[in-house]
TrEMBL record:
It comes from the Bacteria. Gene3D superfamilies: 6.10.250.2150, Glutaredoxin (3.40.30.10). Signal peptide: none annotated. Belongs to the bacilliredoxin family. PANTHER family: BACILLIREDOXIN BRXA, UPF0403 PROTEIN YQIW-RELATED. NCBIfam families: YphP_YqiW (TIGR04191). This is BrxA/BrxB family bacilliredoxin.
Length: 142
């Protein structure tokens, strides 16, 4: 009989792969977050990934689409809410002024939060609109 952890790992892996195969660096531990986020130079995008339907149908496809824009982040990271709990909690410490939200996208510059696209801006929105929120942020903060 398969353990719960092994089952969840199998179920979650394609959701991880959707971002990592598009160049996202997965931060799985608090230490990896502490090493990456405050030291990242230039514009960084941090995806707070999630298993929810709006992550699958909207957030991940929109963020991947946003990378086709002329202006792109210098660094692209992801943490997985509900899976890599310590990494996600540590990442959220850098998102000052924003309530925990998943899925969500943090736009950071030189390790400092600039803005976030939160779950309420993702749910029930069009994929192109969500990608537009991201590309506008890239243009604004680059």
């Amino acid at each position: 009989m398969m353990s719960y952890e092994a089952y969840m790992s199998q179920v979650i892996q394609p959701m991880r792969d959707e971002l990592t195969r598009n160049g996202f660096q997965e931060l799985r531990t608090a230490e990896e977050v502490e090493q990456a986020l405050p030291n990242a130079k230039g514009l960084s995008l941090v995806v707070v990934n999630s298993v929810c339907g709006c992550a699958a149908g909207l957030a991940r496809p929109a963020v991947v689409h946003s990378l086709n824009h002329a202006t792109k982040p210098d660094n692209i990271f992801t943490v997985f809410a509900g899976q890599d709990k310590e990494a996600t909690a540590k990442a959220r410490e850098y998102f000052e002024g924003y309530a925990p939200s998943s899925p969500s996208f943090a736009i950071m510059k030189d390790g400092k939060i600039m803005t976030m696209v939160e779950r309420h801006q993702i749910e029930n929105n069009e994929l192109a609109t969500i990608a537009g929120l991201l590309t506008n942020a890239y243009d604004t903060y680059k």
